[in-house]
Structure formats: structure tokens, C-alpha cells
Specification:
The structure holds two protein chains of two kinds. Chain A is α+β, with helices and mostly antiparallel strands. Chain A has helices spanning 19-36, 49-58, 60-68, 81-87, 159-169, 200-207; strands at residues 13-15, 42-48, 91-96, 105-113, 116-126, 129-135, 148-154, 174-181, 187-194, 212-218. Chain A has two domains: 11-135, 2-Layer Sandwich (60s Ribosomal Protein L30, Chain: A); 148-218, Alpha-Beta Plaits (2-Layer Sandwich). In chain A, α1 (19-36) runs parallel beside α3. Classes of the chains: A alpha+beta, B mainly alpha.
Amino acid sequence: MRFKNVFNIIGPSMVGPSSSHTAGAARLGRAARQLLGELPEHADIILYGSFAETYWGHGTDLALVGGLLDYSTDDPRLPDAAEIADEQGMTIQFEKGSGNYPHPNFVRLRLKCGEQQAELAGASIGGGNIEIHELNGFDVKGSGQYPTLVVEHMDSKGVLADITRTLSEGELNIGFMDVDRKSRSGEAMTLIELDGIPSAAVLKQIEALTHVTRAVVIDLD
Amino acid sequence: MQFRTLQDIVRLCEERQCSIAELMIVEQVKETGVSREQVVEQMTSYYEVMKEAVHRGIHEDTVSRSSLTGGDARRVYDYLNGGETAAGSHSTRAMSYALAVSEVNASMGRIIATPTAGSCGIIPGVFVSTQERFSWSDEQMVLGLFAAGAIGYVIANNSSISGAEGGCQAEVGSAIGMAAGAVVELRDGTPQQAMHAVGLALKNTLGLICDPVAGLVEIPCIVRNGLGAVNALAAADMALAGVRSAIPSDEVVDVMLQVGRTMPSEHRETARGGLAQTPTGRKITEELRRRRENQGS
């Protein structure tokens, strides 16, 4: 069953005009912002396929920027997102992407704030649903449908066991996880979809684990 | 969910002696582990958004970002208040409300995707107008939305609710079927009659292509929402009168998928065929492109 419950059919609550080009775009922008962990100073947004062709009339650009401001899909400020971002000192560069892309509605966001950087590539797959394809250069997949814990760590024995044990002690159930590493014993990332939102204390415990460099939560609800 | 087909819905409602809405709520609670109160509360908040969108579209100026569309809901509403209409005042009112919500959507206003943003006018148009007419409570309307959701759930999983996959029949067609079935239940029809209404409605939109001018959810989407609301009321009446869908409604759902699969990609939301590629459709597309380049955005 592709659609699991009644609110996949009646819903989402959203600012128009298109669930794939507007609501999905807002969620992708918001996921990127939460990966960065703060308001970006600068964003490079590269649009592919139908996103690149029809973004203007669908407000895809405004929705992506609204997402960068951490707005939900039905936030009435979405149509004014460009001006609000400008007032808050955010600079944004839109580009049309070239080369291959895995879905007709695909976008890559590169964000910067001071020394901190974040990069997300993902697709809007319809009905406001999204697919995360890549985070900070790691090939990890996620749906954004659940609270998502993203952990950057070194590829080393026992790291995953430590992370999952900490989650289990925090009473959190794992629905899905994906791991990617740049090289053996090199940098790695683990994406974990959870049935609940990890508390600040749990996040702190995970960040304190040996070999873990950073942990953030992406929560789009 | 315990049901996969429309006939499953009828069977389970008969076994449990319950409405389609009640079946949907019970199954939703089981599937998600979220309490009944919260599930009903969420749907209630969605109905509030739908009513707001109707109100905005009728009483405020809505112009889309492309400035291609806007103001038709008010035109129809004013016409309705000017005297007897060809389709009758109730149908015309549903039509104006559906246009209103679709125009709010095109102007980047807040709506509920039912089942998609492209078809977001039909259910609110039918629901808000019938609520006013029959003095139904918000609680009843929220139950109606669960009934519509159960029908949409079956269509979405056995066929499609995406224009890119199945053409406009999958979006506007599905919404008409959902609204028609829900009205039958709200009018005290049986679950069996509601399912006939779904089949009758879907038969009338089979083969409807998705051909948005310049790829935007405006032309012809908004007008199709207005006309779709009228069709939903008509299909509900046919079923309540005892008309049956001679081809079982589940078979109609299945054939909608087959028709969608054999539709050329030109007619599935790509704007490469249909109305989008008429001389005027192409001219509008070209004008928009030029305007955007001049704006440098």
C-alpha cells in the first residue's frame, strides 16, 4: 500500500498551488535548514527537471526559501518568504542544474552560516511527500515522514551499536536506518527514522559518544 | 487497514453495522496508534481550513502569481445572487465554492489537498454548500470527510491520485468520486449506494487528461474543479435514486489505472499536449516565459 492512512488522502494542509511543486519544496528546504541547524546566511539552490522548468508559476522558489526559514507547508508567510529572508539578511542564488538527476522534481541546496555548511539533495515525489537522496555528500535515503536523526561519525566498530543503544535507552523505536561512509575507517553518516522525537538530553548523549562528531534532528511536522 | 477495495468497505460496514466514516476512523486509529480524539481533531482542523478557503475565494480578490486566473468564483457567486441559474442554485453555489478554493490555491493561499492541490476545490465546494443547505453540523461534515477519505484511500492504492501518473481523471475524477460517495452517506444512503455513486462518478471522468497550460495548476484545473463539484452532486443523486453502477465500482477504479497507463506522457501533467499545446496555450506559455526573463527571476 503506497498510501498508509486517511491523512495521505485528505491532506496535507498546505499553501498552494501544487502539492509536489510547493508543499514538497517547502519540506525539502526545511529539511536542509534543520540539517544546518540554524538560519543560513547564504543558500545556493540548484533546480532540476520540472522544478527548473515550472518553479516560478508554482512558487517552488518561495516554498524552498520558506523552508529555509523553517516554515511548515501551510505557513501563511510562505508567499512572502523571499522578502522575509532578505530582511533577515539571507542571500540566495538560484541556478538551473545540468547533467543527470534521479527524479523529475529534484533540487540540491547548499547552505552556509559562518563556518557551518550543509548540503541536501532530494526529490518531491507527489502529494507533498519527499525523498532525501543525499546529505552533506553522503548517500543516505530518508522520507521526512518521521522524526529523523542524522549522525555524522567516523566509520568504526561499535559506533552504530552505541547510537542504537542510546536511542533504546531513550525509549525511541527505529523504523528505518541508512548508513554511508566515504571510505573505510573514514567519515560516515547514519540516518535514522524514529517513531518519536529525541530529547535534547538524548541528542547530547549521542554527540558525546566516541567517534561521533555531530547529531541533528530533522522534524518536518 | 482492513479494507483494500470499495466492496471491502461495504462488507465491513455491513458486518460491523457502522457507517463508512466510523470504519475509517477505527481503522485510522489502529493503523497510526493515534487516539480517536486526535484523529477527529486533525480532520476538524482541516475542515476549518476548507471553510476559510471558500470564504476567502468568495469574498477576497484572488489573483494567481502568474496573473492568469482569479475572480471566476466571485463572478459565478454574483451571477447566482442575480436570479435563477441554468443548473439550479444549489449546483451553482457548489460550483462557485469549488472555484473559490481552487483560486485560493492558485494564489498561494492555504488549502487542504483533497486528494491533491490540483483537485482541492471539489470536496470543499460540495461539503460547504451542502452543509449550508441541509443545516448539517461541523461534526457531521467531519464524518463526511472520513467517508471521502476511505474512498480516496482505495482509489489511491488501487489506481492513482496523481496527474503525472494517471492524468486528470486521477485527481479531479478521484475527488468527484470521493465527494459523491460522502454526500450519499451524509444523505443517509447505504454504504452500497455510496460505492455506486463512486463508480457512476468515475465513469464520467475516465480518460480525462492532465494538460495544464504552462504546467501551472490554473488552466484548465480551476474550471474542472467547479464543474467537478456539480458532477459529484449529480452522481450522488443518481445513486440515492437507486441507480447502480452496472460495472462494479472496483472494476471502474481498476480500469482508471489501465487508462492512465496507456495515456501518452503528453497528457500526464507535462504540458506537452492537450490544452497546453493549443495555439493560445502556447502563446500564454511564451508570454509568461518572456515576462519572467524581463523580471530577471
